[in-house]
Design goal:
heterotrimer; A alpha+beta; B alpha/beta; C alpha/beta; A: Arc Repressor Mutant, subunit A; Glutaredoxin; five-stranded mixed sheet; 7 helices; B: alpha/beta; Rossmann fold; Ubiquitin-like (UB roll); four-stranded parallel sheet; 16 helices; globular
Chain lengths: 172, 444, 772
């Protein structure tokens, strides 16, 4: 039984959130994790998510938005089912990061923060993801893919295309 | 999966369990796991502090503050609860060392947190990982759960009556500034990652207002090893006033990029040419960014320096996070400087004027310059702006942005001037950005 | 705390330990520039303008976050520091738009001032400037992001200061932006919106023109205005508002209201009404010509005709039907002088005690209850360590009081004890809150003698201020003062001069200063009847039964307020003096166009008894001050004006002749003037002539210090009721106005600003205010 009467989250996530507010000395500490986990489930942080999270933490919606807008992983508009994040920071740049990015743009026919028409992929140029010694590196959602070349990148994208098919097809 | 590398010159202290599956608690225990914590419990705070001070361990996140001294700043008595906060935000470009620690030896971080807690009298520790490290967070969470199951965490740890210690793992959501210790606390408290006014310092007023010790993950992970081997023994491994070893992530144009554990004071030239196998494809070295993007660049003729905090400072740069980024002759410093300032402009928290406006301005000027619309005055202007950001900002990010910029412009000024005359490298790395509406950071 | 000795720019200074360096320097006359530092709000250290060089510190330090230390050696001006400030300004001016020529802040802009001082005007910025379009967040608040320097004053002012928290910071880096609490996607026109108290504090706090007010935008440049500081005409707090006035063809018009002059009891604070609701004064519906009812319709006539008609008719009715068939109703918004004059007119010209006004608090009972004790002034609210608040809702009814309470809690850890029948917003700052039923204040007061948690906590307080809403009336007031003999009391009423109206005797059964009708001091001069007159409700009852031959209404709208049946005034000769054709004026036989509180001089007394001067700011052709109108009416009535208003030299008795002061026939007023070193006033229309008499006769006001008043300072007046005859229970005559932050009695519908703000707030879908 969730603490919130009509939670917009799945029962599992709602239960997780119920628990999350109890573990910290001050429950506001649950805010950043909650936002990210809500996004993991919904695909982005919707207005309804903001409202419910504000309610769970006794915060103003304004407070929630102030925090949400600061962090670059959090988004208020949907991305693709698989968000391809290409690092072009210094170590990756030196080992072909920009080529990789261009390759993704050419292959997926979308630009930075773009989403493919079928909603399967979105593309983002990101800052250093902490895989510098295995550059160039890319994250797809939370998965790391390292030591890439354009060809290897194609193979990576195919993995996700296959995953999407077995999971019942296209993204919502 | 990030590959593990090795080299005979390595002195494996922190990395000794890498590749042995030590994320599994049983394997960890087999390799002296949680022995140090029990020693700490037995011998008490004074012993821990003395050992840590004797070790000469200095913060591995970049600031290089002596760890033992930092822990001893925490007052004995406190009306508010005390905390340990492990900084796993690792966002300094060129740095991936904490990545391998979390992956291969998460229990060392947990044990180190406990040890810090016992030293200062804290009952709770937080391990904060950057948002992008989700798979590592899962590993750490499992490790924490296993430690609880064994009674190493929770109430009466290791069966010691009345000694409790809890660990909470926390995710970030994408912000470099959060790596700054007070911004880290703000993020953990559920706020925007903007730093705090200091003083008061975290050791006195930190998380939720209570005394807090904040350490980089690598620093914390070193603690159990130090207690096991003894402070002096650890200190001896390194150089004068720079005890022990550290993880160096060597990346860029080298044959064998990877994370290597080398003694403090090890020669940078040897690190690049011996350990990492020299310049990729036999090319010539042009420059080295020696400790992550925030450290002033060294020219190819400046790499004869020992890799410790003091020697690097004397050479006009910093040891930083140990992320050694190697540039060969094909790299355009103009492009490199542009990409560097783009990073800081994107990550500036925006709180104070010099950083917020300075990074934005320099980025715009360099963008125009790189696109071919520059003039001689621009080089002076960039230098002026960077010089006027130094020491003026609310937190060190301003310096972190200004110092490398100054390094590039001063040491490679000729290259900038030649760029104006149309000199270009054969294979530019950056697509020319149209000079127009700058991209907006954040969720929008 | 021990004092600390330190050196600044070679000067040896001393300050208490814990003082911020920037404040210590300011006290010594050393001004350190700052954008983000704002006294009373939390520290930011974001603008980096206040950097100073402290010996032995490696970097420049911000003076706003440095506390003074023994032996500290500080330099606040040097080439290094000038360069640091110059560079900071240059960086700020990079993205800053070239709006100076049109920006509202032009000429009053802290960024302009600093740029001028530090020579940052030579710009080498050659890049595109970040741009966002300007946004209208509410009828009051407009936001221009390019101009914003991100000093965060507005965010803190709205949060810490106003406890509304409607503003926040979003995004990061150079994309950082100040954001209001209703995001674009949730607001009607798809632009961000502000759901707040529309007080305008953020606009005044903004050092540049990023936040501007809808009331003033692009109307004029500040140097084209004269600025007049006067007292706000709306609620009973007595805030000083600074009105920017410009000459126009019909006189002078108020173009802007703000709190530029921060010298009033309100300090930094001013609310929506004080700032923006001056626009009723410029409403095109202002009466600008006297009107007489002819053939059933109100027709414009000349002053001579109107005054003669009113005066002679009034005289006739008094002579034929008796003085007690005439009633007088005064105003909560006219000055003390006008109220005093009006009751004197009623009592000495007409000869009746049928005087009343719209009572919004029971001040007569209050005066009796606090007799002989000290009462609380508005300033006491700010400095009191403990305040007991019974009834009322200061946030809405007395916003300055609420601000002072919040500030006291925030900065001085004051303790608030609140007893209320509603969930008032101040509850958030309360140390203890207890619920009272709406009509149960009397029985609640009984519980305060002790034996319960709330009462025991309150009774422990040594220095207590008791702040009362109008729910506490009659005998309950004296019960309270008896229960807390050492506390200081205050009673909140509505409107700018309700307290003044009561103090000046606009009541049927007391004389000015709450003196009994037969009181000696007045009796000799007034020669009034000792019988109480009709109160307001009784007057209308008399009108209904045909017994009220005439009614003179000044600055009041009782027909609307008391829901009077219009037909009941059919047999009453009604004279109305007002700004607009209110419901009451529409029924009148004669209407005089009056000036409002911003267009006259005199004094007003706030709810607490703090007396202040009002200054004439605007001027409207065709209107006259109420004071002048009363005098003229008395004149046409056939009364000797010198007996009504003590003006002119050699008033009544010839001082040099044999009958001197002892004879009793000499002019007491002249003697008093001489004794007090004051000159007689020369004009019958000079309110200060009446102020002289007020000072001479009215207990409490006899202590007023003229220089204090004329300097624009407030002073506290104790009611000093003396031996007051037991007042009859008049609970039912108190009728609160129930005004909110966005209404002000009958003026509401004539203020476009208030109308706009009400409309804006009503449209909000979700309620975003902090109190929820």
């Amino acid at each position: 039984m969730s603490a919130i009467a009509e939670s917009i989250f799945t029962p599992e996530l709602a239960a997780r959130f119920d628990k999350l507010v109890t573990i910290y000395p001050l429950k506001r500490s649950a805010l950043v994790p909650m936002l990210l986990y809500a996004q993991d489930e919904i695909g982005y942080v919707s207005d309804a998510a903001v409202a419910e999270i504000a309610q769970r933490l006794d915060l103003l919606e304004l407070d929630v938005r102030n925090v949400l807008s600061y962090y670059s992983m959090l988004r208020t508009v949907p991305a693709g089912k698989y968000n391809v994040q290409v690092c072009t920071n210094i170590s990756c740049m030196l080992r072909g990061g920009f080529e990789l990015l261009q390759h993704c743009k050419d292959t997926l026919h979308i630009g930075h923060k773009g989403v493919t028409p079928d909603g399967l992929f979105s593309l983002e140029e990101v800052e250093c993801i902490g895989a510098c010694c295995w550059a160039p590196a890319v994250q797809v959602n939370y998965d790391f893919h390292e030591d890439l070349t354009p060809a290897k990148m194609d193979a990576v994208l195919d993995i996700y295309r296959a995953k999407a098919k077995t999971n019942g097809g296209e993204a919502k | 999966m990030p590959t593990l590398v090795s080299h005979p010159d390595e002195v494996k202290v922190i990395s000794r369990r890498f590749g042995t599956g030590a994320a599994d608690i049983e394997k960890y225990i087999e390799q002296d796991g949680y022995k140090a914590a029990q020693m700490a419990l037995e011998n008490g705070p004074e012993w821990i502090l003395n050992t840590m001070k004797a070790s000469g361990l200095r913060g591995r996140g970049g600031a290089g503050f002596p760890t033992g001294m930092k822990w001893s700043f925490v007052p004995k008595e406190s009306a508010k609860p005390k905390y340990v906060l492990v900084n796993g935000d690792e966002s300094e470009p060129g740095t991936c060392k904490d990545h391998v620690i979390f992956l291969h030896d998460p229990h060392a971080v947990i044990e180190g947190t406990m040890i810090a807690g016992l030293a200062i009298g804290a009952k709770m520790g937080f391990i904060y990982l950057r948002g992008e490290y989700r798979y590592l967070l899962n590993i750490v969470e499992k490790a924490v759960a296993d430690a609880y199951a064994k009674g190493f965490l929770g109430k009466n740890i290791f069966g010691k009556e009345g000694v409790d210690f809890d660990i909470i793992t926390q995710t970030g959501a994408g912000a470099y500034e959060v790596g700054e210790e007070s911004a880290l606390m703000e993020s953990l408290e559920g706020k925007r990652g903007v730093p705090r006014i200091k003083p008061p310092f975290p050791a006195v007023v930190g998380l939720y207002g209570g005394p807090t010790v904040i350490n980089n993950a690598e620093t914390i992970a070193a603690a159990p090893h130090i207690l096991l081997m003894g402070g002096e023994a650890y200190a001896k491994l390194g150089s004068e006033r720079n005890g022990g070893t550290r993880l160096f992530g060597i990346s860029g144009h080298v044959e064998r990029p990877g994370v290597y554990e080398l003694p403090m004071g090890y020669s940078m030239r040897k690190a690049i040419y011996d350990v990492a196998g020299g310049i990729k494809g036999g090319k010539k070295l042009k420059a080295v960014v020696p400790g992550g993007a925030s450290c002033p660049v060294l020219r190819a003729d400046e790499i004869d320096v020992g890799l410790d905090f003091d020697q690097m400072a004397k050479a006009g740069t910093m040891l930083g996070s140990g992320g050694i980024v190697v540039l060969d002759e094909t790299v355009s410093i103009v492009e490199f400087a542009l990409r560097t300032i783009r990073f800081y402009q994107h990550e500036s928290c925006g709180w104070c004027i010099p950083c917020r406006e300075g990074t934005d301005w320099i980025k715009k000027t360099l963008t125009r310059f790189h696109a071919g619309g520059g003039n001689k005055k621009d080089i002076d202007n960039i230098q002026y702006l960077a010089e006027n950001m130094m020491g003026r900002t609310f937190c060190p990010l301003g310096d972190a942005a200004a110092m490398p910029t100054l390094g590039f412009v001063k040491k490679f000024r000729k290259e900038f001037e030649e760029y104006l005359e149309g000199a270009r490298v054969e294979h530019p790395l950056i697509q020319i950005q149209p000079v127009g509406e700058p991209e907006l950071a954040g969720a929008h | 705390m021990p004092d600390v000795n330190f050196t600044v720019d070679g000067q040896k200074l001393t300050a208490p330990a814990g003082t911020l360096l920037i404040d210590a320097c300011k006290s010594a006359g050393i001004e350190i520039p700052a954008f983000c530092y704002y006294p009373g709000l939390s520290l930011q250290a974001a603008c980096r303008m206040c950097v100073v060089r402290i010996e032995k510190a490696p970097k420049l330090a911000t003076a706003c976050t440095t506390t003074v230390a023994e032996g500290m050696n500080v330099t606040t001006e040097s080439p290094e520091i000038a360069q640091a400030r110059k560079a900071t300004l240059q960086m700020l001016l990079g993205n800053h738009p070239l709006d100076c020529p049109v920006c509202d802040a032009g000429g009053e802009c802290e960024l302009q001032d600093m740029t001028f001082k530090y020579g940052a005007a030579d710009s080498f910025y050659a890049e595109p400037k970040n741009h966002r379009d300007e946004q209208k967040w509410s009828p009051v608040v407009y936001f221009d992001r390019p101009r914003c320097i991100l000093c965060y004053r507005c965010v803190r002012m709205c949060g810490e200061g106003m406890d509304v928290f409607a503003l926040g910071i979003q995004n990061r880096g150079s994309s950082s932006v100040i954001a209001p609490n209703v995001p674009a996607q949730l607001s009607p026109e798809d632009i961000p919106n502000l759901d707040c108290e529309q007080c305008g504090m953020c606009i005044d706090a903004c050092p540049v023109g990023a936040l501007t007010s809808g009331a003033y935008r692009y109307k004029t440049r500040p140097w084209e205005m004269n600025h007049v500081a006067t007292v706000c005409t709306h609620c009973g707090d007595g805030c000083k508002t600074t009105l920017g006035v410009r000459s126009v063809s019909e006189g002078s018009e108020i173009i802007r209201g703000d709190n530029r002059d921060k010298s009033g009891i309100n300090g930094d604070f001013l609310c929506n009404k004080g700032r923006y609701a001056f626009d009723f004064a410029n409403n095109i519906e202002r009466l600008t010509s006297p009107l007489i009812r002819k053939d059933g319709k109100l027709k414009p006539v000349s002053w001579e005709e109107a005054l003669t008609y009113a005066g002679t008719n009034l005289r006739k009715l008094r002579d034929e039907r008796g003085a007690d068939s005439i009633g007088v109703i005064g105003s909560n918004r006219t000055t003390n002088e006008e109220n005093y004059l009006l009751q004197k007119f009623a009592r000495t010209v007409i000869g009746t005690n049928n005087i009343d006004h719209h009572r919004t608090a029971d001040y007569a009972a209050f005066a009796a209850a606090v007799a002989g004790k000290a009462t609380a002034s508005q300033r006491d609210i700010l400095s009191a360590p403990a305040v007991l608040i019974i009834g009322g809702d200061p946030t809405v009814q007395a916003p300055l009081t609420a601000w002072n309470l919040r500030t006291a809690v925030r900065l001085n850890q004051a303790r608030l004890y609140i007893a209320n029948h509603g969930d008032i917003k101040l509850k958030r700052q309360a140390k203890a809150f207890t619920e009272v039923t709406e009509f149960g204040y009397g029985s609640f007061i009984d519980t305060l003698s002790g034996g319960n948690e709330f009462a025991d906590a309150v009774r422990k307080e040594e220095k207590l201020v008791v702040l009362l809403g109008n729910e506490v009336r009659g005998a309950n007031l004296s019960k309270l003062t008896a229960a807390f003999p050492d506390a200081k009391f205050a009673l909140l009423a509505d409107y700018a001069n309700s307290r003044g109206a009561a103090d000046m005797g606009m009541l049927p059964d007391v004389l000015p200063g709450y003196q009994p009708l037969g009181a000696a001091a007045f009796a000799d001069e007034y020669k009034t009847s000792g019988n109480p007159g009709l109160n307001l409700v009784e007057m209308f009852d008399a009108a209904l039964s045909g017994e009220l031959s005439a009614l003179y209404v000044v600055g009041s709208n009782p027909v609307a307020r008391y829901n009077i049946e219009p037909a009941s005034l059919a047999k009453t000769f009604l004279i109305v003096q007002d700004l607009f054709l209110t419901e009451t004026a529409l029924l009148a036989d004669v209407v005089f166009p009056a000036a409002n509180l911003y267009e006259k001089s005199g004094s007003v007394t706030n709810s607490y008894g703090d007396l202040q001067l009002v200054s004439k700011a605007a001027d409207k052709a065709g209107t006259r001050s109420d004071f002048e109108l009363i005098v003229r009416l008395a004149d046409k009535f056939g009364h000797e004006i010198k007996q009504l208003v003590p003006f002119g030299k050699g008033l009544r008795a010839d001082m040099g002749q044999s009958r001197g002061a002892q004879s009793g026939e000499a002019d007491r007023h002249s003697i008093w003037l001489t004794a007090n070193n004051m000159e007689p006033k020369l004009s019958p229309f000079d309110p200060f002539a009446i102020l002289d008499e007020i000072q001479r006769l009215v207990p409490g006001y006899d202590k007023l210090r003229r220089l204090q008043l004329l300097s624009g300072n407030d002073q506290h007046i104790e009611p000093n009721a003396g031996d007051l005859v037991q007042i009859a229970n008049r609970n039912d005559l108190v009728l609160p106005s129930h005004d909110t932050l966005f209404t002000s009695g009958s003026l509401t519908r004539f203020s476009p600003q208030l109308q706009d703000v009400q409309r804006h707030q009503d449209r909000e879908v979700a309620d975003h205010l902090a109190a929820d």
